Each structure stands twice: as structure tokens, then as C-alpha cells.
Amino acid sequence: MGVQGLSSFLETHWGVYQDLRLRGTRLVIDGSNIGFHLYYNSGLDQNCGGEYASFEDVIKRFISALRTCEVQPFVVLDGGSDPTDRKLETVTMRAEQRIQKAHEAAETGKRKGILPQMARMVFKQTLARLQVPVAQCFGEADQELAALAAEWNCPVLSNDGDFFIFDLPEGFLPFTHFRWKQVNGGPERYIPCKSYTTSRFCSVFQIKPQLLPTFAALAGNDYVKLKSVNWARFVPAGSETLGRLEGLLCWLSKLKKSEDAMAAALKLMGDLATERKEEIQRGLSERMKEYKPRQSCLRQFFEQEVPPPFQESGLVPDWACVALTQTRLTPNILDVLQLQRISLGFAVEPRDRPSVYVISRPIRQVMYGLLLGGETSLKVDERDRDGSQLIYVPVRPAFTETSQKLRLSSLHEAKLSERLLVLLEALGVTEDSLSLIPDELKLPVAVTCFWQRTAQPPPDQTLLKALLKGISKGVVTGPNTGNHRGGKKPDVGVVYAFNQWQACLKDSVHLNQLLGFPLLEPEIARLYQGTTVHQRVERMDQYNRMLSAQRETARQNQQRETARQNQQRETARQNQQRETARENQQRETAQQNQQRETARQNQQREAARQNQQRETARQNQQRETARENQQRETAQQNQQRETARQNQQREAARQNQQRETARQNQQRETARENQQRETARQNQQRETARENQQREAARQNQQREAARQNQQRETARENQQRETARENQQRETARENQQRETARQNQQRARANRSQPAPLMEKVLIMMVDQESSIFTVCQLVSMKGGAIGSSHMVS
């Protein structure tokens, strides 16, 4: 912008400036330039996506300082690109530099002068809310700013070096020396600043005023670059400064007319081809013409609200010219209509990922279709990046079922329902799905649905929650409160994801503007505050990590408890197995003892039977002996009877006596035998009673053993029941503790909600965001209701 190096050069020549107390005047402001410097000079975040609420506060304080000093601001903004492409080489070089700076900012976390995507939109919206008069040019605003300031006899506020060349009656106020934060004075307050005029410049360097445009053209600028002349050789010997601009001014101080200066300059360039000389002369002349006074096109707009006409008749409809001048349309549409080209800008993003503008391309394609109509052969070259390389991507316009019926010339007259349908089709949602959303949040929510569906990589639950909490609550911040990250490098993945969301939002806002605002345009400063959202993501990540750690600890504790319980069960099982083995062993021992006892009893019975058999044999033997004795006795008696018969009567008395004696002996023997039989019978009864007593004792011992075993089993069952009851009590205690913890957390949330009552939009958007099981967000609800409309209704 302007003469290269002139601003730095004049910092060493303070004689060109004059101290000024600015008050009670109109002030024409270079809005594109001042908005840029207001953001950067306030130390706001550049790498987290922007501190829009803080930026809004800076703008309010800036305008308040002007109005406190009774200064009436009139802001003029740049429009579309130069259709002649005279600055294309310079613009391309600067774009390549911004790509490198954006990558460095993403990799290092340092400030590299990358303006956040929505900062210009926040600047426009804030000025509109403050009712500051604002106008947007169709091209660059420098000439219009100079013409307006000349007609109103008021100064220009900017940091653009071109205003060192324009002849401004009330001077040029460099923003570098504009101390708007230091308003001084009593009743008549003023802003201390420095004023520059071309008359003081010419006086200091002793050149003619008419040579200033020649000086600017020869010194080099965005349009003309002359590197073949060594102007430093014209610096007088002994001068304190030796430089290109100093030498050029010394050389011009000896000339009076611009024509002479041009001719002399061409001679200094040496032998050049005729075509090259004509090309240089033509470029220098065109550049000099830009500094000539001209009539303002915006004065009528500021005074009577009459917009200027567009130079190329029929290309831009009248309604669009009005909206462009009123800043209700993005100037990018002029680039599309005139050049079929658009510059997408560059956000802080890593070089190894696609541009953040790739996912929002379907939205822009619908806008191209509305602008270019049914001319399907036309393509729009989007200036973007691929890695670290600047590229131009040819993009075909796209049409939805509704947009292909509309025409740019009558777009403002189309039904609201049709225009709304075009926007919703482009975003892939339906009107019914947005019915529960407040009007001011319908567009951001629809954009968030589109972003959630198309972003690569898809945003996770934490990012979605952090973004929706900010959207629903509205950003509340004080002056410069957004830059308190302690120099910590932001997470590149989070930056990239939110920059994709901003790209979708910006293109959706531009499409909404082109369609005549079928949805209420959201206040960008209320939607996103970079470091606040990043801090919220960090807190959520920390909380999620803490929850994960707690869950892992609880899982490990549960595993330990389960292992302990399993060990206890295993120990009880082993004890039960041991007890069962012991009982089985006892049963086996008892069985063996019983078998031994039975064997012993059988042996005793066998012994008794054998004794009985022996006794019976003995008794039989005794009976046989007695019978034999009786037979011998009988034979003897018969013999005796025979002898007695023979001896007859001699022996009769003796035989009778012997028979009596034998009868008595026989009776005695019978009594003795009967006594022996009774004794044997009694002994057998005693043995049988003893055996029965032994069997009863064994049966009682077996019953006692069975009772003892049953008592042991009952004791083991009672111990197992007590262990089960203890485990159930432990589980119940853990469940009650968990319920108490849940109640405590709910109570804390309730206290937090009572201390900071959430607005209606937070209740609508976050009522399901806090659920932990999955992303129950309104965006998902909207996506499910709306369906995937955008892609299916697109035709190229």
C-alpha cells in the first residue's frame, strides 16, 4: 500500500508532522485499514480464531473517544479487487507470504499478523449498531477517501502511505500517532495526534507540490516497481541519511515539472526497448493520475443516502449496488461478477491439512449460481492454498431445486419463503427443524449442523459442547480479556476445527446477505471468543481426562473387589472342598470302621457259631459217650441181670439196689446235662445281647456323626449366607455412595445454575449437551429432522 518505505522514512523527519488537538470536526476514516490496526494494536488473539467480543469493545471505545471529542466519524471501506489486475503480482506475493505466516503461526503459536476470518464482519456490525455512517466502495477506497475529505475540509485517518501523496486541505492523520486512548482536556476534550500535510512535506524536502505524484510513481508502489535506478547516488555528501527515497527527493528538488521529471527518469534507466519505455511511461502516468483531485461519489450517499452507480452498466443490479454501498453485501460478489475470481483469505492452519475453506465450498457454489445464473460454462477461480502453495481452483456454480428458478436481477423481489428455502437447502436443514431455535441463533445452528456433517475430521463431542455453550450463553467479556492463555500454544486440531466452522459461518452469512436476509444475521461478537472457547475445550478435556481416570480407578477398584470376592469365593470353595473332603474322609473312615466292626461282629458271630458247634459236638460227644456208657451200662446191667437171673435171687437185692443207684445216677446225669444246656442257652443269650448292644452303640455313633456333619454343613451354609449378605451390603453401600455423589453433583450444578441463570437460548441448546452418554445436541436433532438435503439437491 502506498509508497514503499515512506512511512518509516518520515519517522526520521519529524518536521513533516504537526501536533494537533482533534475535536469538533468530521473525520473520514479508512475503515479497512483502521479496523486492521485496531485489532492488532489491542493485543487481541490471532491464533485461536479471534477475540470478537473484545474487538467489539475496542471499536466501541474508539468511537466513544471520537464522539466524546465531538468528532463525527465517517467510515469508508474497500470494495472489490481492481478489475485491471494491475496489482495482481503484488497481491499474489502478499498472499503467498500470508500462507507462510499462517503456517508458522499454527506451528509455533506466535503472532504472525493473520487477521481472524470474521474480524471485518464484526467491524461492520459494530459500526452499524453504533449508528456510525459507513459506506463501502466498489473498488479501493483511497481516492474516495481523499475526495470526500477534500470536499468536506476534514482530515483523513489511516495508516496507508498513499495519503502522504494526496493533497488533503485538512491533512492526513497517521493512525500510528493517533492517541485516541489518551483523550485530554476539560470541557473541550480532544484527542492528541499528529497531522501531516503535503505542503509541509514539500517545504521540508524542497520540492514542488505538483511533483508529489511523480515522486510516488518513481519511488515504486503496488502498481509500478522500478529497480534499475540507484536513487541513493543523488544524496548529497555529508547527509545523515543515505537511502533510495532521500536520493529521489534530492533529485526531484532540482526539477519543476512532472513531464521533465518523467523524461529525465527514463534517461536514467538507460537503453530500453521502445515497448518497455512505453509500458513504463504508461504505468507511471496511470499511477500519477490516481493522485489527481476528483469528485466524491459517496458524499451524496452520506448526505442523502443516494448510492453511486456502478461503472459497468447492467452487470450489477441497482438493488445490489445499494446493498453493497450500505455494507449489506460482501464485496466478493463484485469479484465473482467482474473477474469470475474470488480470494478466500487465509486462516491459521497447519500445512499438512486441506484448506479450511474446502468444506464450505458447496455453500459458495450456490452463491455463484445465484450470481452467474444459468451460464453453466462459467467457472469461478477460487484463490486458495494446497499445502504451502498458492493455487487457483476452478469451481462450477451449483443450483438447488429452488435457486435454479431465481435470477440475480429480481432476487430481491423473490418470495421470502423461496429465498429461505435456497439457504436451508444449501445448508442441508429444514425450516421445521429450526422451529425451536431463537431467531438470532437459527443461522449459527444451521451452520453448525452443516459443519458437523461435512467437517474433516468430524468434530468430537468436546468441540461441539464448547462451541454450543458459547453460542447459547453469548460471549461476556471485558476489555482485552480474551488474551489470557499465558503464552500457551493453542491446540492445532482445535484451531483447525473452529476455523472450518468460521469458514462455513462466513460463507453462510454472505449467502444470507445475497438472499436478502431470510434468516436474522447473527451478531458475530456474541457467537465466538477464541481463547474462551479454547479454554473451555481444555477444561472439558481435563474434566474428561479426570472422569476417565476416575472411571479407570473405579474399574480397577471394581476389578480388585471382584478379584477379592472371587478370591474369597475361591477360598470358601476350597474350604468347602476341604470340608467336603474331610466329611467324605470321615464318612469313609466311619464306613471302614463300620466295616471293621461288622467284620469283627461277623468274626465274633463265626467264633460264637464255632464255639456253639464245638459245644454242640462236645454235648453230642457227651451224649454219645453217655449213650455208649448207657449201652455198656445196659449191657452190663443185662449181663448183670443175666448173672442176677442166673444168680437169681442172690443178686436180686443187689441188682435192685444197683438199679436204684443207676436210676439215681441217670437222674443226676440228666440234671447235669439239662444244667449244661441252660448254661449254654444263657451264654448264647448274653452274647446276643452284647452283640445287639454293640450294634445299638455303633448305630448311635453313626447318628451322632451324621448329626455332627449336618451341623457342620449348616454352619458352612450360614457362613456362606453371612458372606453373601456382607457382599450385598457392600454393593448397596457403594450404590448409595454413588447416589450421594450424583446428588452432590446435581446439587452443585443446581447451585451453579442458580448463581448464573442461563438465558432461554442456553436452555434450548445445552439441555442435552451435558448428557455424558453421547452427543445429544440440538445440532444432531436438527440434522435428523433436516436430513441430508444440500448435496442431494445440488446439480452442477
Question: What is the radius of gyration computed over CA atoms, rounded to a whole number of angstroms?
Answer: 57 Å
The separation of the N and C termini measures 39 Å
* Largest sheet entry: 5 strands, parallel
Q: Helix proportion of residues, in percent? A: 55-70%
Range of strand content: 5-15%
Which characteristics define this entry?
rod-shaped; 23 helices
Task: Describe the fold and architecture.
With 796 residues, the protein is α/β, with parallel strands linked by helices. The chain is built from 23 helices and ten strands. It has helices at 6-10, 31-41, 52-68, 88-108, 119-129, 142-152, 198-205, 212-219, 244-252, 258-268, 274-289, 299-304, 318-325, 332-339, 361-372, 416-427, 439-454, 461-473, 492-514, 530-647, 649-755, 760-766, 778-786, and strands at residues 17-22, 26-30, 72-77, 134-136, 156-158, 172-174, 191-196, 341-343, 380-386, 389-395. The strands form three sheets. A five-stranded parallel β-sheet has the order 4-3-2-5-6, sandwiched between helices. Helix 18 (461-473) crosses helix 20 (530-647). The longest helix has 118 residues, at 530-647. The chain is rod-shaped, with a radius of gyration of 57 Å.
